[in-house]
Amino acid sequence: MLAEDSKKSQNMIQSVEELTYVQKVACLLISLGPGTAADILKNIKDETEVERLAFHIAAMDRVAPEVFTEVITEFYVLFEAQGFLVSGGVSYAREILTDSFGEEHAQKILNKLVQSLQNTPFDFFNKADPTQLASSFQNENPQLVALVLSYLKADRAAAILSLLSPEAQVEIASRIAVMDRTNPEILREVETIMENKFSSVMTGDFSQAGGIESLAEILNYSDRTTEKAILDNMEMRDPEMAENVRSLMFVFEDVAKLDGRTIQRILREVETKDLALALKGAKEEVQTVIFANMSERAAAMLKDDMEFMGAVRAKDVSEKQTIIVSVIRGLEASGEIQIARSKDEDSFVT
Q1: 0.90 surpassed by pTM
Q2: Is the Cα torsion angle 45, 47, 52, 56 positive or negative in sign?
Q3: How far apart are CA 6 and CA 2, in angstroms?
Q4: How far apart are CA 188 and CA 201, in angstroms?
Q5: Which pLDDT tens digit goes with each residue over 199-243?
Q6: Nearest to 245 by CA among 211, 283, 279, 221
């Protein structure tokens, strides 16, 4: 594949029509600058595609400057057209695009958009109300629900999962964890069922969905109560699976495995009243490591706050622990802290 790409990149490229789609993406990444390009490449899971893009970025020294401008314009038009399509439907998008570019060009743009949108099965459910979906899914086959949730955005799948009964949560979570690849025939059949019940679903090619990583990501967006219930029940049914999921997650108890500098950075972002409530239900080792990374005066005040609270509801403790974990994940996402799981030592290092 790279050999073929090499031949296409050897001569000066004078027109957008000479570019493959991958080359257009490479042009766009160059135009966006190294920082943004690096962020985008980090989020592309297909290593082969990353390799091809990197190759073309390196080979883009023989492209006419006006080609870069045309590529940026083409992607801009596609993004704008997608907004028209989502907000007003196909007819609205066609009308706006036809007025701007003419009927033939407008149809070409719409064809590209439809083709790209068709790669996301069940995208409709990302815009539906989680409460209504959870109510409808409660009596559906768990395997069917697991398949749908595997294709949804992680935060939307987490919202739906948290609204299901505890029994359904465990059953569906377990099925997501062991799911691998979905046969396109089965996927089309499921989409037909969903289309009859909920309308407007997408078709898709043979694709990866589900698995341990998918479940871990969904649980990372879930509230603490849902997360704990699923993992505790899963551990009783399949301890190895539960451990594999946990190895890909960061949960509140893992604070005890962080180094002092990281904990001190986290504490600067956490409200004292939230921390006090979160620690009321925490294990002793978590409390110990938190107190050890505070000044004696601050630790003493925090302990007084915890004692003054008296008995607290488990739900309130879980909510505050969820908030703190969200802070930690946010700091990690922004690059301010680094958390990597060491499977051999079962510890977190930064």
Answers
A1: no
A2: positive
A3: 6
A4: 10
A5: 543 333 334 445 677 677 777 766 667 677 777 877 887 888 877
A6: 211
